[in-house]
Each structure stands twice: as C-alpha cells, then as structure tokens.
Amino acid sequence: MPLRPPAVFIETFGCQMNEYDTELVRSILKDNGYRFTDSADTADVVLLNTCAIRENAHNKVYGHLGALKALKEDKGLVIGVLGCMAQNLKKDLLEENSLIDVLAGPDSYRALPELLEKAAAGRKGMAVDLSEYETYTDITPDRIEGVAAWIAVMRGCDNFCTFCVVPYTRGRERSRELDGVVREAEALAASGCKQVTLLGQNVNSYRDGTHDFADLLLAVAEVRGIERVRFISPHPKDFPEKLLEAVAGHPRICKHIHLPLQTGNDRILQLMDRTYTRAEYLALVDQIRTRCPEIILTTDIIAGFCSETDEEFADTEDLLREVEYHLAYIFQYSERKNTIAARKYADDVPAGVKAARVTKLVEFQRGISLKKNREMIGKTVEVLVEGEGKRSRDQWMGRTDGNIVAVFSKTGNGLKPGSLTSVRITDATVTTLYGESV
Asked: Quick check: pTM over 0.85?
C-alpha cells in the first residue's frame, strides 16, 4: 500500500507579494506530490510565509512558532519558515532546541521539496541566498479560482529607503518579460478571473529590456476577459507622463493610485532617502489629478521616524489635510535589523509619542475618508461583484473602480461574482459605500 503524501499547511503573513509567493510554493510542492490541509492539527508540515517589514508581523510569527511547540513534540511536525524573516532566523535554525527545521528565502522556493525531504529524515536545512535572476516566471501559481488575482511582475528593490529591509530580504530589482505576464493574465481570464493586480516592491520601475511599466499595464489591459487592472506598490519617482496617460486613458485600468508618502517633512524625507521633496510630491499629486480628475489616491505614512520632532510631524498632518487621500495606511516606525537607519540613526522617538502620533493621524484621516465617501451619496458607480456581503446573504459586496468597498442589496437581476453592475450610492461610512443596483 503506497504511503500517504505528506500534508502541508501554509500560513501567510504580510503583503500581497507574500500571498502570491504562497501560490508559487503550493504549485512547487503540488508538483512534487505534496497535498494540502487547512489546519496545523492535520498537517505533517507547517510552513509560515513571513514578513519582516514591521515589528508586529515579526512578533506574530514568533507567537505562532511557540503555539506549534506541542504539535511538534506530539507528532514530529516539520516546521518551515519562508520569506523575508528566513534571512533573519539563521542563528535560530542552528540552535539545537530550535523548533525550525527548514528556512527558505524568497528566491529559494524551488529548493523546498529537497529541504522538506531531508527534514523528514531529521536533517535541518536552509536556502536563503538572494538571486539576481529568479522570477519564477515558468511556474504557474496554484490559486483558488475567484474574481481577482495577483500577478508578480518583478521582484526585489533597488531604492534602499533607509527604514526598509526589503532590498536585504528580497534582493535587487529584476523584471519578468512582458509576454510571460500577459500569458499569465490570459490564463487567469480563461479561468473566470475578472481583475488582476500587478505586483512589485517598486512596481512602476518595471523594465524587461524592451518594455516599461506603461507598456506592460496597457498590454494586460488588452487581455480579453480582464475587466480591471490595478497595480501596487509604486514609488513617486517613477510616474512619467506615459504612465499617467495609460491610467487616465484606458477604460480597464483602474482610476486608483496608491502613492506612498511616508512623511510630509523634507528633513525626514531626506533621512529616509525617499529621493523627493514635499514640494515635488505635491506637484506630482497635482499632475495626477489634473490628468485624471476622477482618480482615487491612497498612501502609506510612517510616524515617529528617527529624530522626528513635533513640528516635523505636524508637516505630515498638514499634508494629509492638503491632499485629502481617500485612505491612508498609517504605522509607527519600527527599527528593522540591517537597514541603513538601524546602522546610522538612533531610534529615539519614545514609543508613547509614536503611538500618540499614529492615533492622531488615524483619527484625522478617518474624518477625511468619511467626508470623501459621503460625497459619493447620490452618485452611480460601477462595482465589480466579489461575493456575498459579510453581514447578510441578502447583499452583494464588491469594489468600485477606485477600490472602495461597496455593499448593496440583491435584487434578483442575475448578478454573480465577477459581474459588473451600476450601483447608486445611498449611504456611506469611513470604509464602505452602501447602495442599490440600478
């Protein structure tokens, strides 16, 4: 009687790129005879696909490792840590009492079958070297079919912002060929997917030697069956007129740009090595809104970076007031090992001050978000249906072109996930639009 294939449970932490990488890992392991389960209790192998960007994600992984200790002792569970944190856990793996059996960095997922086979035989191992070439372009991600999907179009980052660990955990920038990305989008469309989001640590710096990011965006938008194309995360330094023209001019490229700011103060921007000034950032915002007045802008903010004063923090609050983003992701600065900031600057803003600044910005932004959403009451917007509402099976939930969640009543008009429908907005909260299909 043949042995039962090992069952794998994968838990994913962090960004959309990690979600995509988990789909690659599933494909690699499935091709090597592994099966998958939805619980650590029923698994032979548990893999944690990790994030190292913020301290909270780091602590979560350590917490989950501790929770797996009893399972490992009881049934000999094989535990692997994948992704960005794998680079930082080499010493842990080498400790005799470590729970970790396998480490695999973002460029080493092809080595997983061999590493897991050795771990099952009692030999720990790691593969954490960074590659200048690996893009996994020949691997078809193992996805759960649905309305929307991610496509990683490039990997790594060359920006070296002083606060960021990504260049050290994911290596230097390298891009997939345009034709390979288009083929992946075509396969997604054939499976019923209606929306793709193009991913990269600095997605708009995409170059395959012949094509730039605007070329890629337009090529994917022309794939038959794909109704919406998004992208994340860009850098403000890479927005030529050609890219803005693509966003503004193509009906299937979403009118939403996530434009990370990080801080509104010039001295802190320079310490972060963001390569733009406050004035240059605001000029780009004006250029984007002039070219595409209906654009929805969102951003990232870091509060409490090294040596940030109250007056410098106030510059960020003032910029939020001036730009009026639809949404802002706001975090307090957490020093990451091996970054330039960790080597050069003191993390000297007290934790309580950081937390208070985050709270202040979050509350301020909530007021702006509510105002922006309520301005949409009475308007009719196009919504891509994603599924049933979370609170009621009598409602549909979807997103507008600008990526705002919309909830509306089912009306017996034949809608299903993947349908595009017009919704008249009747109410709004900070995060959600409510309406009725028309």
From this structure: yes
